[in-house]
Amino acid sequence: MPTPMHSHLTDLAPSSSPRGGAASPALSPVPPAISVHGLRKSYSGVEAVRGIDLEVPVGEICALLGPNGAGKTTTVEILEGYRSRDAGRVEVLGCDPATERGRLKPRLGIVFQEAAVEPYLTVRETVAMYAHLYPGHRGVDEVIELVGLAHRRAERVVGLSGGQQRRLEMAIALVGDPDLLFLDEPTTGFDPAARHEAWEVVRALARLGKTVVLTTHYMDEAQYLADRVVVIVGGRVVAEGPPATLGLRQRAGARIRYRLPAQDTPPGELAAAPDADGFVEIHAEDPVALLHRLTGWALEHEQPLEGLEVIRPSLEDVYLELTRRGGGAST
Amino acid sequence: MSAAVLTLDQIRYVNKAFWRNPMRAFFTFAFPLMFLVIFTALLGNGVVHIGPRAVKESTYYVASMAAFGVITACFSNTAMMTTFNRDDGVLKRLDGAPLPRAIFFASRILHSIFVAFLLVGITAAFGHFAYGAQLATGMTLLRFLVMLLVGSASFCALGYAITAAIPNGDAAPPVVNFTIMPLLFLSGIFIPFGNGTPDWVQWVGRIFPVRHFAVALQAGFLGTPFRWDDVAAVAGWGLAGLVLSVRYFEWEPRR
Fold first, then answer.
1. Of the given ranges (A187-201, B109-123, B158-172), which has the lowest mean pLDDT?
2. Do A122 and A212 have their domain in common?
3. What is the pLDDT of residues B176-209, one digit of tens each?
4. Residues A157 and A172 in one domain
5. Which residue on chain B is closest to A112 by alpha carbon?
């Protein structure tokens, strides 16, 4: 709910949500949608979750990133009420999912990684059947429209493509008009166009004030959708923050890349051994100064600096670095 | 929605899904008829002695195959379909929604009862036209229908209960067949008990619900005595199945 007041707060606090959905707790009396402290869970002696703390404010899109087996799904399933926990305090929409699952269920929407529906019902029948389970559900046709299945509403589930079945999952998750949505790898198996459509659906939900917890392997998905990214490795949170600044990405060193046609080489710090294609790549802690010197030299010597680019570490680079370090630390 | 309306709503969708798999629906009804034709072709001209009475073996098989059909539809099919649905994540998905468990079980058991009545109706009609078997009328018919109601619900509950002992869909057919096939044979469904039936076989029949159910259904076709003990025995098993289902039923695939 981006009210004027919220956007004003956002201006004051640039590190908070870009859409203003997630005002900082100190300024807002609204308790967080999810609050987790010291969460632990073991499966037959192996600790899958080793002390996770997590707070998701109402209206935020929070992405959980991490390699397979990092404890993401276990964490999410504890929040959904599917799993019990060994230790820690968990509150979801003011309920303890372990003991108050019945109260929680009508307010949750879930897109599962592996789940299915009765194959012989049509799209419309399936969504209607689920709608009837929720006290204050949304319009069945409206939701089918929203996920882009209107033209397939009379089709049986067996006749849907993989991507369409995932969209049906999304429709089921939405039809109960939930306050909190869990999306477990919601666009895996989508083609690029379908992914962008699904992203628009998720953003539209956030604008309605819904809180979204998303697990994903796609960095572009996290980058595009999430207000905040939480990286989980080996059952622990190793980093969290807005995607633009995760792991101090905005301040991390950059690489400068260019190619020289002639044998002429720039002085010292601006040069390096060219690769097979003749490209030179230099590391720059301060790319602004280095670039200035490089371009100054190029102008002076009338060198074109073909394909010149400054490469910042992508979210994926940061993620890979974090998971590499996190994985090393946990062994 | 009130609980009753929601139950009816669920039955409606379960029923739609049932008929939209035509092969599943067809063979549910054709299976007992096929066995009826085979057994009567092989042994139909004989005579079965039940207590002091001698009855036509073809009539005996109409009653037995009606019982067999109900047990297959309610116990075996329920156990297998439920395990497949659990493997596929259909149950996990439902469990994420606020569907009360009582309504989940009630709607599905009621639908199985409906299928059982239809199946017995078809078997009785086939038995009547093909073999001249006559279903009783009046109070005998009413008692027959009570047993059918209790029996189909109970075998369905037992079908849900046994899923807790089935690890995955691949194991469902062997586990189900291993449980039910010996009981069908040891309860005189395929081969009528004679005078020389060993004691231990008689005891198997007394302990487990299959023979009680079959004997009570026979009473509706053969005019043999109907005993409420049989209904009580089947109902007892059904209740036990229900309690076990509520306690041990699993909604998620096992890994």
1. A187-201
2. yes
3. 999 999 999 999 999 888 878 899 999 999 999 9
4. yes
5. B93
> Encoding tokens for residue A238?
């190793």
Could you tell me which of B105, B120, B118, B121 has the C-alpha nearest to residue B156?
B105
Question: Is residue B88 scored above 70 in pLDDT?
Answer: yes
Interface test with B, best of A114, A126, A132, A185 (most B CBs within 10 A): A132
Indicate the number of domains in chain A: 2
- How does strand A87-92 pair with strand A108-111? unpaired
- Consecutive H or E run containing B101: helix B101-131
Confidence band, pLDDT 50/70/90 cuts, at residue A2: very low
For residue A19, the model assigns a pLDDT of 45
**What is the interface size between A and B, counted as CB pairs within 8 Å?**
60
Are residue A265 and residue A244 in the same domain, yes or no? no
Residues A304 and A205 in one domain: no
Strand pairing category for A254-259 and B47-50: unpaired
Q: Check CB contact under 8 Å for B97 and A130.
A: yes
Nearest to A106 among B21, B90, B98 (CB): B98
Domain ranges of chain B: 3-248
Query: Residue B90 is nearest to which of A117, A130, A176, comparing CB atoms?
Result: A117
| B58 within 8 A of B44, measured Cβ to Cβ | yes
Nearest to B97 among A105, A114, A116 (CB): A105
Domain-located, residue A330: no
Q: Are residues A265 and A133 in the same domain?
A: no
Would residue A12 count as lying in a domain?
no
User: Residue A46 maps to which CATH number?
Assistant: 3.40.50.300
Our CA-based measurement puts residue A153 at a distance from the nearest CA of chain B, in whole angstroms, of 16
Instruction: Give the lowest-confidence range in A125-139, A263-277, A284-298, B74-88.
Output: A263-277
Instruction: Enumerate the residues of chain A whose CB falls inside 8 A of the CB of residue B10.
Output: 129
* Domain coverage including residue A236: 27-248
State the Cα–Cα distance between residues B138 and B136, nearest whole angstrom.
Answer: 7
